[in-house]
Amino acid sequence: MARIKISIDKLPAQKLFYLVDSCFLINKYIPPDKMNDPYEKILLEKSQEWWAIIDRQLSHGKAIVYILNVSIAEAFKSLFKQYIKKRINYATYDKARRALQIDLTLKPKDARKQKRHIKFHDIEINRDLIIGIDRFFESFLKNYPGVSTFDLLILSAARYLVDFYGFSQERIIPVTLDNDLWKGSKKISDVPYVFNPAHKSNYADKVFK
Asked: What is the topology classification, in CATH, of domain 16-207?
């Protein structure tokens, strides 16, 4: 069943819940003018257009960003690969790594505050998330066999937030830079609409209203 494209309010009346993959996450921290690869530079620019709006929503208490705990480990690995492949220099890599580490860390002092500002919330991989992946195998193996089990976790997690925590499906926003995962998700009607900031139909200026 084809999915209908939806738009997102820049400052929504109700809080939005973003569920992001590791590549989209690290693209928040690398300046586009420091990227040597032209294609990766475009991904950075388009990702950061999204992040500018998400950050504004976060500052107004209108959004929460969730990351799978395995995606956090993958984010540091992906960031290092950008350096190893000489797409960025060491100084750019080190600065991005430190900024990512700071944003993912909650100091004990801050954790004890009555009003806590937690930038990113992690989702632990558990039995229900793993079993939930099984329902996507048939569709993806037929149409997009290159999508890994790890990639499918973001769809399972999106549905998990609905089934186990009662989140409104319309306010969960999975975000990925994996084009096959994005395209394959359109064939599954009971998961939240998945966005790919790097695809022209999902550019920030076309999605956010």
From this structure: Rossmann fold (3.40.50)
